[in-house]
Amino acid sequence: GTRVWQLDPDRPDPEIISRAAEIIKKGGLVAFPTETVYGLGANGLDGEAVAGIYRAKGRPSDNPLILHVADLDMANRLSRNLPPQAPLLMEKFWPGPLTLVVPKAGGIPQQVTGGLDTVAVRMPGHPVALALIKAAGVPIAAPSANRSGRPSPTTADHVLADLEGRVDAILDGGPAGLGLESTVLDLTGPCPIILRPGGVTYEQLAGVLKEVAIDRSVLGEKLSKDQVPRSPGMKYIHYAPAAPVILFEGEPEKVRQALSRRAAELSARGKRVGILATEETAAGYAGGAKILTMGRRKNPADAAALLFGRLRQFDQLQVDVILAEGMETRGIGLAVMNRLRRAASEIVKC
Ligand code: TXA
Ligand code: MG
Questions:
Q1: pTM of this prediction?
Q2: I need a surface site. Which of 40, 138, 200, 299 has the fewest CB within 10 A?
Q3: Cβ–Cβ under 8 Å, residues 269 and 275
Q4: What is the ipTM of this complex?
Q5: With contact defined as beta carbons under 8 Å apart, do 177 and 40 qualify?
Q6: Would you say the CB of residue 233 lies under 6 angstroms from ligand 1?
Q7: Which reaction does it catalyse (predicted)?
Q8: Is residue 72 classed as helix, strand or coil in its secondary structure?
Q9: CA neighbor of 215 nearest in space, from 342, 35, 78, 121
Q10: Whole-angstrom Cα distance, residue 202 to residue 44?
Q11: How far is the CA of 189 from the centre of ligand 1 (A)?
C-alpha cells in the first residue's frame, strides 16, 4: 500500500523526512511536493530505482528525468563540464523553477538520461523537497507524479488518484505553489534554448543572459517527421484530461463568440460541454455547460496555479469535451499556453 504522510510545508517534521529518505535510499519511490508540481522521486544514482519510476508512471523510458539537488556541490558533481552560463543562472534562479540541461558526468545511470549525453538538473525551492534530498544524501530523480500523459499533480490527492498502490509513500505538504513545471533550459549548444517554458519566464532569462532562444515546439509548431525533438518529452501527448480539449485562441471577443457557437452545437448533439474560462468572461456563456474559471485574465499566474486542477475537475464532472479560452503568451502565460496547446486535440484560431 501507499503511505500518505501529512507535513508542514514550511517546517517539515525531521522524523517523517528521515523515514521518507530511508525509502529512497533503499531504492523505493516517494512522491513529494515542490514549488512547481508534485514529483515522484527515486535515488537518481540507482538505475534500478529509477526504472521503478517509469513502471509506476507507465512512462516511455526514452523520456529522460530531472535530477533534483539540494546544494551546488551536488549539482557540480553531475556535470563533467559546466557551461559558462550555468553559475550565474544557478545564483539568480536557484533554488527555484529552472532546470538546466548540461553535459552529464560519469556514473549517472542511463535510465535517468534516456541514453543522452546530457543531464537535466534543478534545485527545487520547496523546504520539503530540499529536506528530503539532503536526508537521502543523493540527487533525487523525479518526473511529475502523474500517470504518463495525465495533467501534472498539484496536490497530494492528485498523486493518490493516479499512483495509489504504485508508490511507497506520498509526502502531503499541501498544494504545490506555481502549479506548472519548471522551465527547461538547454545549455549544451551555442545559444541557450528554452525547451519547456515554466516557472522562470523567458523575460527573466533574457534579463540575465546575452541571448536566449525558444525552441520551435514550445510555440505549438508540430515537428515534421524527419525532425528530431531536442527534448524527448516533446514528442509525447501531455497534460490531457479524459475528455478532448478544444483550444480557442485570438482576440477575446472573437474567442467568446466562436467558443459559444461550438458549445451550442455540441450541446444540441447531446454532448456534455465543459468550458474553461476566466473570471472576466465566464458570465458571457449561456447556461447548460459546466463552466470552470482559471482566475483573472490579467493575472496569468492564477491560470498557472489552477490549470492542471481544473482539467482534472472536468474529468470528475464527466464532460465529453472541454472548450478552453487561450490567453496571452507574456510572462508565465507562455507556459500556460504551451500546456494548453499540448493538451489540445484541436486549436481554433479566431
Ligand atoms: O517542475 C518540474 O520540473 C517537475 C518537478 C517535479 O521538479 N518535474 C518535471 O519532470 O516536470 P518531467 O519528467 O515531467 O519533465 C522533465 C522534462 C521532460 O520534458 C524531459 O524530456 C526533459 O525535462 N528533459 C529531461 N532531461 C533532459 C535532457 N537531458 N535533455 C533534454 N530534455 C530533458
Ligand atoms: Mg511530466
A1: 0.95
A2: 299
A3: no
A4: 0.99
A5: no
A6: yes
A7: L-threonine + hydrogencarbonate + ATP = L-threonylcarbamoyladenylate + diphosphate + H2O
A8: helix
A9: 342
A10: 28
A11: 18
Q: Which of 66, 148, 195 to mutate to test the pocket of ligand 1 (most atoms within 8 A of CB)?
A: 66
- Residue written as grid cell 496555479: 305
Ligand nearest to the CA of 60: 1
Phi, psi of 139 (to 5 degrees): -60, 140
Residues with CB under 5 A from ligand 2 (ion): 144
Closest Cα to residue 286, out of 251, 262, 320, 319?
A: 262
Which cell goes with 20? Answer: 521518507
Q: Cβ(205)–Cβ(86) under 8 Å?
A: no
The dihedral sign for the CA sequence 165, 169, 174, 176: negative
Which ligand approaches the C-alpha of residue 41 most closely?
1
Does residue 150 line the site of ligand 1, with CB under 6 A? no
Tens of pLDDT along the chain (350 residues) come to 999 999 999 999 999 999 999 999 999 999 999 999 999 999 999 999 999 999 999 988 889 999 999 999 999 999 999 999 999 999 999 999 999 999 999 999 999 999 999 999 999 999 999 999 999 999 999 999 999 989 999 999 999 999 999 999 999 999 999 999 999 999 999 999 999 999 999 999 999 999 999 998 887 655 555 566 666 655 555 677 889 999 999 999 999 999 999 999 999 999 999 999 999 999 999 888 999 999 999 899 999 999 999 999 999 999 999 999 999 999 999 999 999 999 999 999 99
The residues, any chain, with a CB within 8 Å of residue 151's CB and separated by 6 or more, are: 158, 239, 240, 241, 307, 308, 309, 311, 312, 343
Instruction: Find out whether the beta carbon of 249 lies less than 6 Å from any atom of ligand 1.
Output: no
Longest alpha-carbon distance in the chain: 61
Cα–Cα distance between 193 and 215 in angstroms, integer? Answer: 6
Grid cell digits, residue 197: 517554458
